[in-house]
Amino acid sequence: MDVSRREALSLSGTVLAGASLATGAQALGRPAAAGKWWMDEPIRMALVLFDQTRPPLDTDAYIDWLSDLGANAVYVPTGGIAAFYPTKVPFHFKATGLPAGRDLVGEIVRKAHARGIRVISRFEWSFHQDPRVMTAHPDWLQRTAKGEMPPVNGAYLTCVNGGYVREQALKIMGEVIARYPIDGAFFNGVFQRQNNGPCHCDNCQRLFRAKYNRGIPDEADEEYLAFINASMAEATDHLTRFLREKRPDDGFNLLYGRDADSRNDETHSAPVASANAYWLYQASETVNRLRATEPDKMSFNNDAVFLDGYWRYVHRAAPDGEIRAYQNMANGAGPFLFVNGPIEQFDGNGLRGARPAFQFHKAHEELYVRQENAARVLLLDDVGAGKHASIGRRGEAAVAGNGGFGYRDTPGVGLPGDTSNSAMRGFFRLLTELHIPFALSSRLDWIDSDPGRYDLVVCPKGVPAQLDKYLRAGGRVLAASAVKPELELPPVVKLWKRQETLSSYWRVRDPKLLPSVSDAELLLNYSDFLELEPRGPAALTYVPSTITIPMEKVGEGMADTAKPGLHLADYGKGRLAYLPWDVGDLYYRVSAVNHAALIGDLVDHLLPRGRQIRTNAHPMVQITVQQQRHAARTLVHLVNLSGCSQVAYHPAIPMSGIQLNVAGTFRTARLVSQGRPLQVRQAGGYASVTVPSLDTYDVVAFT
Predict the structure, then answer these.
(1) Comparing C-alpha atoms, which of 685, 669, 512 is closest to residue 614?
(2) Whether pTM exceeds 0.85
(3) Residue 640: helix, strand or coil by DSSP?
(4) Whole-angstrom distance, CA of residue 627 vs CA of residue 636
């Protein structure tokens, strides 16, 4: 027996066994559900993406596997590329490993519901396996510029503008909804794979020519990318409208499209065969963004256990999966495990990493319902960063990965957009390491509806004009980058490009304002720089490029200027601190300690009532603050990331004696893992407790 199978069966307990789903929710004392179970029940999701040649024919063992893990919801591969039920839809390819007469989906739905496990049907529309479709329905498939329809691993690429996505998919989903009482639906995107270049099918050629008055290019250009992205969005809307019409009830969770009830994302680890950026806080970023921006939706952020999509049976380290799940939980979502293949996994790390988080969540379910980000700082999201056309690029796996860091000044290295949001991510990590809780969002409608919601807005890349009103009314803004803020500022003298600033520095001029960098006279600069006309003495001033070789001449000719590296000024009733250079991008790539100290000092200068959290915790302890209004409870989550070393994950180093000072008035505090009360000391507007020990994750519940 495989080790992962042995471990799976050694787990104890079932989820809501013998109870109805509604009864289980009510027993936890949660708010009365209005049908939206994904918001009002604590969800632990799993996805076992079946191999079509060997699906889990022992459905009892499959349900036991889910229940023993602690999952109470599951994505079930249902149809599209392969049907795992006896479909009656013509040209709906049946999974090759499905015995005649077996209804795998029906068995799983019935048995899962009997064990209190929700079922989401998963569909995939990007491939078709039946070769007969080439003659019966050639309009379903993509064509090359030569009119060919070459297969990819024995399957054929479908086109988002063809009859398969626009018609056949509706028949399949309609059949499934009519047959099974599923709790929701997810289709793995409606995207146009481009393994064979831009599609030249009749539909694409007709639609593209009507829009651009020319033929489809042999290589994707900007107009083609715009065209195919618009086609994908239109096809997605088409499918989601159909699902809404078929299942209009509140209890049906739609997980894809602009009209979705929830969002599905994936968290990956260090890449092997591509140069996408590796990102320690990927799970936190994903969940924080969605829960802060669309609080009426749930984030289902799955931990893809494989090291790389090209090696799906080899798993990332167990501690990697553990902290990703805890990051989900600390930001308002639940744990989510995604594995490929049979339940008897080839690698035990996936299950081993998920188990602690699933069990903690299961033991303390009441904490994981209706969490809302209670941070008093807003990190303004760059909504355009990292976004590019959702079509594959030929040869994208040809470049070996390097973790995604460093400057890509050489064309052709890396993938488009892989580090284009580095400024935001630099600030994400800065604020996290400084233990400054924050919400990540691009929404600014609160300026009119709830102007006191945030004490500080941090803008990593430009400042939108809406924040002018916020500042004038008394708000505080910390902005950075050479993207000129849409605010009233001194005139621009020059935009310096990063290459012009090689070997340059910032001179620290005001140690009183910047006490944490008082022992450093110079700070690193290698960044685009927007030079503004000076307005009196600046706390940072520019030191132009200096001699670096030969070493005996280092520093010769070093010159000071009055060019400001910080514009600090009152703005109406508010206060603005603007660093006209890319400190966020630099911190993402270099992590200079004095850049972190600089930001910490500016945050302290700008926050009118001080920081929300004061603590002696190590910078690698991630701290978030969530609130549960229905329970009048504030939750402080602690995730110990000390086991991370570049792209390696090891067990966290246990820590002790963590002092937490939380802004507000609280009577009680409880360390959740130990079920024990903590002594609360109230002074100076803060409630103070000491966490005696922290392994990988814990929660302090304040009331």
Answers:
(1) 685
(2) yes
(3) strand
(4) 9
